[in-house]
Amino acid sequence: MITEIIFYIVAGFFEILGCFMFWEYFKNDKPVWYLGIGVVSLVIFAFVLTRVESEFAGRAYAAYGGIYIICSLLWLNFIEKQEFGRYDLIGSIIALCGALIIIYPSLNNG
C-alpha cells in the first residue's frame, strides 16, 4: 500500500505543478515557457498514475482524488503561502479515509 500511496503523491505533485503553471501563465502573465513546464508535468502525472495497481482506471482516479486533496492543501500552504483552516483539515481527512478504503481491496484481491 505504501508504494501505491507514493505513486498517488507523486502524481498529485505533477498534476498540481502542471495546472499551477497554466494558472500562472493565464492569470499572472508569466512567460510562455510556463506552459511547456505545465504540459510536461501533466504528461508525467498521467504516466505516474498508470503505475498504480488498479484493474480499472476509474477506481484509480477515485482513490487518487482523496490524496489529491491533501496534496493540494500542502501546495496551498508551502508554495502559495496560504494557511488552511479547520474545515480544510476535516474535509481532507475524510477524503483521505475514503481514498484508503478504495485502495485497500485492490491491494488484497478483494
UniProtKB/TrEMBL annotation:
Instruction: Tell me where it resides.
Output: Cell membrane
**What sections of the protein cross the membrane?**
6-25, 32-50, 56-77, 89-107
Give the membrane topology: Multi-pass membrane protein
Q: Name one Pfam family in it.
A: UPF0060
Superkingdom: Bacteria
Keywords, A to Z, come to: Cell membrane, Membrane, Transmembrane, Transmembrane helix
Q: Which family does it belong to?
A: Belongs to the UPF0060 family.
Q: What is the protein named?
A: Uncharacterized protein
In its UniProt entry, the species of origin is given as Campylobacter majalis
